[in-house]
Design a protein that fits this description.
The complex is a heterodimer.
Chain A: H1 10-28, H2 34-53, H3 57-64, H4 72-79, E1 81-86, E2 100-105, E3 108-114, H5 121-127, H6 134-149, E4 154-160, H7 167-171, H8 174-187, E5 192-201, H9 202-206, E6 213-217, E7 221-223, H10 227-234, H11 241-248, H12 252-258, E8 263-265, H13 276-296, H14 299-311, E9 316-317
Parallel strand pairs in A: 3-4, 4-5, 5-6, 5-7, 6-8
Antiparallel strand pairs in A: 1-2, 2-3
Helix pairs in contact in A: 1-2, 3-11, 4-13, 6-8, 10-11
Chain B: E1 24-26, E2 33-35, H1 36-41, H2 57-64, E3 71-72, E4 78-79, H3 91-102, E5 108-115, E6 118-125, H4 136-152, E7 155-162, H5 170-189, E8 194-203, H6 204-207, E9 216-219, E10 225-226, H7 230-237, H8 248-253, E11 259-260, H9 266-277
Parallel strand pairs in B: 6-7, 7-8, 8-9, 8-10, 9-11
Antiparallel strand pairs in B: 1-2, 3-5, 5-6
Classes of the chains: A alpha/beta, B alpha/beta.
Chain lengths: 325, 280
């Protein structure tokens, strides 16, 4: 797939253009440039490897937002079988930014809650750019409860810039919808495996992100605030987004170090958007392995571990206890 | 080039008369000037328009709890600059500045107390400390307070005011939402009451976690309460916001909170609710 290039991929693009020239030149004049072509191809691979081994936080944010990156529904169709989408929160509406339903992961029956962005304007209008309304979070909870009732574990695929900041969101109480999910997911009596597959936008991501295992794709990000908004607050200007992205420690590796995520799922070289099949295969393998382990753990133990996992997050200094204190 | 210089008409800022600090307050609600003494005698509520001026956490505890009953827990917990956050000012510098100006170590006071004789675990957020944003210390103190209540079979009362998660602590601050909400889940499983009080302003990450999980949710009159900030909503939607949007009254009209209670009646209202929820 010829994908839309990101700024930092320009050196690779330039080399590819020259390779194309070389090839057409060779064809036109019937000359043998095979060794040059080969060395050029090697150079392209090498350049791309170098770029992708040294990605900055801001570059990863751009990859995570790439329009040709696989989205949740694509992962669902690649990693799962027998998908049945279930619609609506039974109260207000059906939030298409939050597709939920039943699916099989291998032979394991599951419920899936997910966040879905669109590739073009039309699709993005339908999916609200992946920004769910309260009814999305309430639909997700309804489906997770369904999973609990029929002993089906929950898979959550996270990919949202954030919960939707709009009038309707406030009127229908987006804050409460997220808060209730946080509380209910903590004690839901089936295993929950979550994976940030693209953007993990703050409370909107966490709203389906309280899980026994929290995975993240290599180039996905998960942040308390978008780098642009952080830049606007701290530098009074959105232009410092790259610095903000660095400061926020939002990349997969940083989050592993902080203990916020449990596992990084590798992406194909050049990012998930370069090879959807490999990306999906990697995700499927990681989900199956983590789910299997969670299913083998007795539920009471799993619930204790889930609580302890979030309970220990945070970093602060505690004064030494004086006698009797 | 001009031959004659334009005469400078700049006023000298230093000589500008200012209102004497601390004696008079201009009410943000009605624009009237209110005297400090009058304000203090009236629970720091504007006598003309009922605008509720901010209170420090200490002032709130003194107003809500039985005299001398408050025992602070986990007082010494201090924030750490885990991410080594550098912006226009570093996180460390900001913490120090707010610690100096407010006399607080962080944005919450927590402990246990009696309210009309009922034992409660209580946390009060203080907006004057870094907009009472929730970082690790706020999350940890509130979580410990809730766990204390669960172990002592006590009610939880949280008085919120917050700008949301504390971005200087990155994802660790977001995780405090899950941590506090999880602790409330275990508290609720024991069938213990939680009363959430929303004060001006309670927003974002705090609103999207413990503040919205009360068995009863009370707001002070006209308090600004919501998830996203009005500026963000306007920029995203390009819509005019309805009048009174995101006020306590707006929330009650839409069925999102139980009660709006004037500050002078808050303690009595809490006592009445605690009596209903506490088996005698």
């Amino acid at each position: 797939m010829e994908s839309q290039p990101l700024d930092f991929e320009k050196p690779v693009l330039e080399l590819q253009r020259r390779l194309q020239e070389l090839k057409s030149h060779s064809a036109k004049h019937d000359l043998d440039f095979d060794s040059e072509v080969e060395s050029m191809e090697l150079k392209i691979r090498e350049t791309r490897r170098q770029i992708y081994e040294n990605l900055s936080a801001w570059q990863r944010v751009q990859i995570a937002r790439h329009v040709q990156r696989p989205f949740s529904l694509e992962y669902i169709s690649c990693c799962f079988t027998e998908w049945v989408e279930l619609h609506g929160d039974r109260v207000f509406g059906d939030d298409k930014a939050m597709p939920c339903g039943l699916a099989k992961l291998g032979s394991q029956r599951c419920v899936v809650v997910s966040q879905q962005k669109g590739r073009d304007t039309k699709e993005n209008v339908k999916r609200n750019f992946g920004c769910a309304y309260p009814e999305g979070y309430r639909k997700a909870l309804r489906i997770m409860r369904l999973g609990e009732k029929f002993n089906l574990p929950v898979i959550a695929l996270i990919d949202t810039p954030g919960a939707y900041p709009g009038i309707g969101s406030e009127e229908r109480h987006i804050a409460e919808a997220i808060a209730v999910n946080l509380r209910e997911m903590m004690t839901l009596r089936v295993p929950i495996i979550a994976c940030v597959v693209g953007e993990g936008g703050s409370g909107g991501a966490l709203g389906i992100g309280v899980a026994d295992r929290v995975l993240i794709l290599e180039n996905a990000y998960y942040s308390v605030i978008s780098p642009e908004a952080c830049s606007a607050i701290l530098w009074k200007d959105r232009k410092h987004a790259a610095e903000a992205a660095e400061a926020l420690k939002l990349t997969a590796d940083d989050l592993m170090r902080l203990g916020v995520v449990d596992e990084v799922v590798p992406e194909p070289e050049g990012g998930a958007h370069r090879d959807h099949d490999v990306a999906a295969a990697n995700l499927g393998t990681a989900l199956r392995r983590n789910l299997q382990r969670a299913l083998e753990t007795p539920i009471e133990e799993l619930l204790q571990q889930r609580y302890a996992k979030f309970r220990k997050l945070g970093n602060f200094a505690e004064p030494k206890k004086k006698n009797g204190a | 080039m001009a031959i004659f210089k334009k005469p400078s008409l700049k006023t000298d800022n230093r000589r500008k008369r200012e209102m004497p600090q601390g004696l008079w307050q201009k009410c943000p609600g009605c624009g009237e000037v209110v005297h400090e003494i009058e304000l203090n005698e009236n629970d720091r509520v504007c006598p003309r328009c009922d605008y509720h001026f901010p209170l420090s956490a200490k002032q709130r505890i003194a107003r809500l709890c039985d005299p001398d009953s408050f025992v602070e827990l986990d007082a010494g917990l201090t924030s750490i600059d885990t991410l080594k956050f550098q912006g226009m000012a570093s996180y460390k510098d900001r913490l120090r500045k707010y610690q100096d100006t407010t006399g607080l170590i962080d944005a919450v006071l927590s402990g246990h107390a009696l309210i009309d004789g009922y034992k409660v675990a209580i946390a009060v957020m203080d907006f004057s400390f870094l907009a009472a944003t929730m970082g690790s210390v706020v999350g940890e103190r509130i979580t410990r307070m809730i766990e204390y209540a669960t172990s002592q079979r006590a009610a939880v009362v949280i008085v919120s005011a917050s700008g949301g998660a504390r971005m200087y602590e990155g994802m660790l601050s977001l995780m405090q939402m899950a941590k506090t909400s999880g602790a409330l889940a275990l508290h609720a499983e024991q069938k213990l009451p939680f009363i959430s009080i929303l004060t001006n302003p309670t927003t974002a990450g705090v609103m999207a976690s413990f503040a919205s999980l009360g068995d009863v949710i009370i707001a002070e009159p006209k308090a600004m309460v919501g998830f996203a900030g009005p500026r963000v909503i306007r920029e995203t939607t390009h819509q005019d916001l309805p009048p009174g949007f995101q006020t306590a009254e707006f929330l009650q009209e839409h069925g999102l909170i139980d009660l709006i209670v004037h500050r002078r009646d808050m303690r009595a209202q809490l006592a009445q609710l605690l009596a209903y929820f506490t088996a005698s």
